Amino acid sequence: VSTQSTWGKFFRSCLRENEVITGQDVDAYNVDWMNKYYGKTSLVVKPSKVEQISKILQYCNERKLAVVPQGGNTGLVGGSVPVHDEIVLSLSNFNKILDYDESTGVVTCEAGVILEMMNVFLQKYNREVPLDLGAKGSCFIGGNIATNAGGIHYVKNGPFRANILGCEAVLADGSVLNMLSQQRKDNTGIDLKQLLIGSEGSLGVITKANLYTIPCDKAKKLFLVRCQNFTQVLTILKESKSFFGRTLSAIEYIDGFAYKVLLEHSISQMKPFQQEFPEGSFYALIEVTGEDEESILRRIEQFYERLDQEKVISDCVFAENINQFNELWKLREEIGANCAKVGLVFKYDLSLPVEKTDSLVKDVRERCKDLGFTVGYGHIGDGNVHINVSLLDKTKKKELEQRLEPYIFDWIVQNNGSVSAEHGLGLMKASLLPKIKPAPVVDKIIQLKRLFDPNLILNPYKVVCVPEWS
């Protein structure tokens, strides 16, 4: 789209010069951070006001011009980049924190506020957003809402959607839905905003939100344990939930292959254990909160002694200070990035009955052993496993992909799991919807899409496949 074109003239008439991006400057918006999904847009618009988004979408809807809303572009399923030449609507200029109510703990913000920056702002009130992600330094609040993001403290905080009290969104025809609210209890009929949460920009563009924040933990401790098999991981999980109760803030599992990747490729100087262990080992990272550090430590010591007597734990290391605390979490959060140092990564975000987790990882590893290096890790506390398969020979990308898909998705469906635990469907998994949902449910989802977006301009080819896109 040249600056002389009809489109260019319109967008420049309602946006500032630096809010319309063309030429080579669009390249960064055409690719996801994994370099896996590529689009061909020639136009990016970066409005800063709701009225501008309204005009843009009304204009595009009347001309049936497809639009892809884009936040921090930290997704893993190709949901925020164009498939073809769709116009990219970036929310990066919607970056203002608008209000904080000290009496209710509700913060009101625009959709382009970065999660970590929000928590920096909230520190002076000793509050935080009940969401913690590895991408917190670059993901947008609007994207978190649009994907109903999960994260490492799901065990403690529950689903993010439960803490989204209100939002504002612009629909495909340019109409603005004001669903902003600071009330935690509002039982006035159908809660329309819940349809927007998790819809991945396919029903509307989220522009503002009211979030309920929670008090920061008074004290917290983190420890990493090693065990010899996955059965012991399950025992640790069961005992952790029973022993720590509501003070259990997070529990993650890491298999020996993922741990090996960390030892060989992490830039961190931290090595939790002095010696190396067999690839068949397993690890659990456990965070516990409480009133003070001494009482937490006593509880952890009691927990350790109980499992040590039962011969469940082989080794244990505690984070003795905030630096070690952060470094241990950093190791866990770096697993995905370090897998990319082995080779191009095929990432799978899945949920299934926890007792079947390692069986799936082992099946995938055996199936792909000649083509990829497979690791398993994830939020074992809520049944969410991440499987990363690093390509060993870049000339065999297609072969590895065909080895993995649809095998891994069929495995999940047959074992009553979900093909997307927290990352959404995006482009990668949109075609799987008929496989994982009953036909009447899929039909209703398509009807909703048509109701909110009759001309199908918003984030096409994502979330659900309509006949026109086949």
Can you describe this structure in just a few lines?
By secondary structure, this protein is of the alpha+beta class. It has helices spanning 6-14, 50-63, 115-122, 141-147, 154-157, 193-196, 230-244, 256-265, 293-309, 322-333, 335-339, 357-367, 397-404, 407-414, 433-436, 439-452; strands at residues 20-21, 44-45, 67-70, 87-90, 97-101, 106-110, 127-128, 164-170, 176-179, 205-212, 214-215, 219-227, 248-255, 282-290, 315-318, 345-351, 372-379, 384-391. It has 16 helices and 18 strands.
What does this structure look like?
- The protein is of the alpha+beta class.
- 32% of the residues lie in helices and 21% in strands.
- The chain is built from 16 helices and 18 strands.
- It has a seven-stranded antiparallel β-sheet with strand order 15-12-14-13-17-18-16, with helices on both faces. It has a five-stranded antiparallel β-sheet with strand order 5-6-10-8-9.
- Strand 17 and strand 18 form a beta hairpin.
- The longest helix is centred in the middle third of the chain and has 17 residues.
- The radius of gyration is 23 Å and the shape is globular.
- The model has no long low-confidence stretch (mean pLDDT 94).
